[in-house]
């Protein structure tokens, strides 16, 4: 395998990547605007922390169900069409949420509905990226995307809160979110080719069989399942985000420190993802297990509840080592056939979302029984030990072997004949892309 790596400017110079990048970043910022606005809006109406938390959680729960169910659509239809359609649907639903007199139950239903298509958009975008960035360009582009995503979340929360504070209107922040969905749809429609999925590896068959094929493909391949498992272990490493408030109280840092604590791992991750993005294939493979294991070590050192400066350094280091996620995601995506990619990514994304939710919930219960610092340290220790076990079992440090025969059998047998027309349809369907 070639050890050639790409430069950042080589990636950014590609017009279609810039389109995907812009659509992702501004849409992610809009999502955070809406989350802040919803939390403030619901609390203002109900004066209930429990109801506010419930509505906020409703923005995170639907992807657990819709990710594996809807992702297959991006393996059946042109991926540009899928992305544009999801953004248009979300823009329309978000626009309804701007109505000031909307009853709270209706608002809650709209919150559920507007988050449901997100896994489909994400799967279609991730499945398209290796086509736009072939070979050594893809890891660099994935690193840029991941780093930008974390930064966009911080900016979205910060600017969203500032906007609501300055205007006193949560509905304006929701309107900004609606605008980002609309702009994303326009940019994708104008600047991206259709990108039809590869019919030879997508298959046909029944809808249920088609949707489950991605899960079967991943679980039948020890390496793929191991890579997915490594990303799921991130549920142990996001615990500081959930316990930032009680941890700040424990160390006597006060509410002003919460924002710094929550930003520390994101800043570290952004730096780490940029650093690992240009590594060659061998280094990426060799560093996946060590970086994953190292991610929990700074959290273990939080056990004694050190002061704010030390904690910020430790959590930033944890985020830096957490850049192993890019390495695992790149290896996972590259190993999957194009026509199976969206379904496999949807399955992995659902697992990650579940792991993060469970990790935060269990750590919260543990923090009630002991202290936040102990809960964070234990979560880090479990994650590090599990990373070594999963990585060694899946042989992630070795050169990859071809997928096993039982994984290939997850591909529908009647699909082979369909592959010959994919290239022709893709060429005829191309639109002009700005360079």
Automatic annotation (TrEMBL):
Record GO terms (molecular function): transmembrane transporter activity
Membrane topology: Multi-pass membrane protein
Stored Gene3D superfamilies: MFS general substrate transporter like domains
Matches recorded under InterPro entries: MFS, MFS_trans_sf
Annotated Gene Ontology cellular component terms: plasma membrane
Residue span of region Disordered: 399-435
TM region positions: 49-71, 92-114, 224-245, 257-277, 289-306, 312-332, 344-367, 373-392
Subcellular location(s) per record: Cell membrane
Keyword Membrane part of the UniProt annotation: yes
Domain of life: Bacteria
Keywords on record: Cell membrane, Membrane, Transmembrane, Transmembrane helix
Protein's recorded name: Predicted arabinose efflux permease, MFS family
Source organism: Glycomyces sambucus
